[in-house]
């Protein structure tokens, strides 16, 4: 058994094509990748919304003045 | 790879594109440095993160659908259906997208186009700093980087694209297909986003918001120049035989070609790159009265202005076009800023959008009647074909989609950060944590010394 379809490199390279593991499961792997990507956006968006609201509430005149002076 | 010559050509081509990809990474390094240098200290970590995360987000989406769009859309939807055969060979589940001993070119070719995608998204990122929500920018980054620009590339930067066939569209080094569209896209977002607080006085006069670190800005733009050089090489096919091109070129003499498989040389584009850079630097130095920011940006605008035709121009044409375009872009920037209250923090709309648009149109006059392609039946290059192409890039695929999406985001309250946060700076939380950590470790060290 070999996850890449080859157990030895005693081959003619002219006959060799794909050599990555789990050939045949490409669509499934892409679906996992898309879920990871979309999930990342959802998590980031929700977290950013909370952080911006907290920052808005925490804003003080002194901190704003200090931030402006730092340029 | 039957035969030694075929094997050598394949490996050389694979290595050639690999080198260009590494060079082009400097464009993104430069954009990050430029943006952070141009932002104020209270925002610089947020600004950096906003641009850095463009890299993974555009990369994964370009893998999922961007690359497929390039191959499937050359005639879609106006002049034919989707090219499913070419598209399926470049779909994310295609065997050629993984480690494959039978295909050594798809991966590096994909990567070269991906780096162009980062650039398109990064151009937009710079213009909107210090007030856009990161989540909003990242949606735009995916759209410009993995959808809109690659559609325009399929139409006007593919040897079989309908704009090349029917308009004779010629844009060898992407004045339009990357720069005009990204500049137009940035303008669409800026139009809705609005200026930074304090940018305009009550009488409407724009205020300068100086960079907090001009040296970082300078290094950034020099990195961009360097990466742009790699980009030029990446837009060429380094070595190809007439037989493989399969067009009207006769004989057996191999050649380098542009993206349309029409002949050029690496030497010519290198000279023209340098001359258009020089024209831009010299002219903008004069017109901006030696302003460092605009002089450096003008150099970039000079290259962008000449890029559409730099595969064929004489060096003096590259110099003069490289000088004229940034001057017009600079004047336009000032006019639009005052007239429409557009706060483009890094001048991206001018340097990329206006310069790219003008570059495409000028190529239509200078290269009037030249073949756009080595294939039979294609339209020749004309001013009207180029003007139509420039409008498609800047307005149709750039400004309008950006404006629509930004309006939706604004209506949902997810485009811009709250005014309180904008004033105190996006890095306030991080700055507080930094100050607390410094105070804690300093106190701990002092206590340790005292106990000895």
Envelope shape of chain A: elongated
Order of SSEs of chain B? HHHHHHHHHEHEEHHHHHHH
Per DSSP, the total helix count of chain A is 2
CATH superfamily of chain B: Ammonium transporter AmtB like domains
Instruction: Output mean pLDDT of chain A.
Output: 93
Q: Could you say which overall geometry of chain B the principal axes of the C-alpha atoms support? A: globular
C-alpha termini separation of chain A: 63 Å
Quickly count the helices of chain B. Answer: 17
Strand content of chain B: under 5%
Return residue spans of chain A where pLDDT drops below 50 for at least 5 consecutive residues: none
Q: How would you classify the helix and strand content of chain B by structural class? A: mainly alpha
Tell me the major beta sheet of chain A.
none
Number of strands of chain A: 0
**DSSP strand count of chain B:** 3
Concise description?
The complex is a heterodimer of chains A (about 70) and B (about 450). Chain A is mainly alpha-helical and about 70 residues long.
Features:
heterodimer, A: 71 residues, 2 helices, B: 452 residues, mainly alpha, Ammonium transporter fold, three-stranded antiparallel sheet, 17 helices
Can you offer a commentary on this structure?
The complex is a heterodimer of chains A (71) and B (452). With 71 residues, chain A is mostly helical. Chain A has a domain at 24-70. Helices cover 61% and strands 0% of the residues of chain A. Chain A is elongated and about 75 Å long. In chain B, helix 5 packs parallel to helix 8. Chain B has a three-stranded antiparallel β-sheet with strand order 1-2-3. The radius of gyration of chain B is 23 Å and the shape is globular. In chain B, a hairpin with a 5-residue loop joins strand 2 and strand 3 (263-264). Chain B is 67% helix and 2% strand. Classes of the chains: A mainly alpha (71), B mainly alpha (452). At the A-B interface, helix 1 and helix 2 of A face helix 3, helix 6, helix 16 and helix 17 of B.
């Amino acid at each position: 058994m070999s996850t890449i379809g080859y157990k030895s490199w005693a081959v003619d390279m002219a006959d060799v094509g794909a050599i990555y593991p789990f050939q045949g499961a490409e669509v499934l792997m892409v679906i996992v990748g898309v879920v990871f990507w979309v999930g990342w956006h959802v998590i980031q968006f929700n977290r950013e919304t909370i952080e911006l609201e907290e920052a808005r509430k925490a804003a003080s005149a002194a901190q704003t003045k200090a931030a402006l002076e730092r340029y | 790879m039957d035969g030694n010559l075929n094997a050598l050509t394949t490996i050389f081509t694979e290595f050639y594109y690999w080198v260009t990809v590494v060079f082009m990474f400097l464009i993104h390094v430069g954009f990050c440095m430029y943006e952070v240098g141009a932002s104020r200290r209270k925002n610089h970590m947020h600004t950096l993160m906003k641009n850095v995360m463009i890299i993974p987000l555009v990369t994964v989406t370009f893998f999922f659908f961007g690359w497929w769009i390039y191959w499937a859309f050359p005639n879609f939807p106006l002049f034919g259906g989707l090219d499913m055969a070419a598209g399926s060979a470049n779909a994310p589940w295609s065997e050629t997208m993984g480690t494959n001993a039978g295909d050594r070119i798809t991966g590096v070719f994909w990567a070269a186009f991906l780096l162009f995608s980062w650039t398109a998204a990064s151009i937009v990122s710079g213009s909107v700093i210090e007030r856009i929500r990161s989540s909003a920018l990242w949606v735009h980054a995916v759209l410009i980087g993995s959808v809109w620009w690659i559609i325009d590339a399929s139409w006007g930067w593919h040897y079989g694209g309908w704009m090349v066939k029917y308009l004779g569209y010629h844009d060898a080094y992407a004045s339009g297909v990357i720069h005009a569209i990204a500049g137009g896209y940035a303008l669409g977002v800026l139009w809705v986003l609005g200026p930074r607080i304090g940018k305009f006085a009550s009488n409407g006069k724009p205020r300068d918001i100086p960079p907090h670190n001009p040296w970082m800005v300078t290094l950034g733009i020099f990195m961009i120049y360097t990466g742009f050089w790699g980009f030029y090489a990446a837009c060429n096919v380094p070595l190809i035989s007439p037989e493989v091109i399969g067009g009207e070129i006769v004989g057996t003499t191999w050649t380098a070609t542009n993206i349309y498989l029409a002949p050029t040389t690496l030497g010519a584009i290198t000279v023209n790159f340098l001359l258009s850079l020089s024209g831009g630097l010299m002219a903008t130095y004069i017109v901006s009265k030696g302003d460092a920011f605009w002089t450096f940006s003008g150099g970039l605008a000079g290259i962008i202005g000449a890029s559409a035709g730099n595969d064929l121009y004489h060096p003096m044409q590259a110099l003069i076009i490289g000088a004229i375009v940034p001057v017009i872009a600079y004047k336009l920037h000032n006019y639009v800023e005052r007239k429409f209250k557009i706060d483009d923090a890094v001048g991206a709309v001018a340097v990329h959008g206006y310069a790219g648009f003008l570059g495409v149109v000028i190529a239509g006059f200078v290269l009037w009647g030249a073949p756009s392609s080595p294939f039979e039946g294609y339209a020749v290059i004309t001013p009207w074909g180029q003007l139509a192409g420039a409008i498609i890039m800047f307005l149709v695929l750039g400004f309008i989609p950006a404006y629509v999406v930004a309006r939706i985001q604004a209506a949902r309250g997810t485009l811009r950060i709250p005014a309180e946060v904008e004033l105190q700076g996006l890095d306030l939380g991080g700055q507080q944590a930094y100050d607390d950590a410094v105070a804690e470790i300093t106190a701990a060290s002092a206590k340790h010394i005292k106990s000895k």
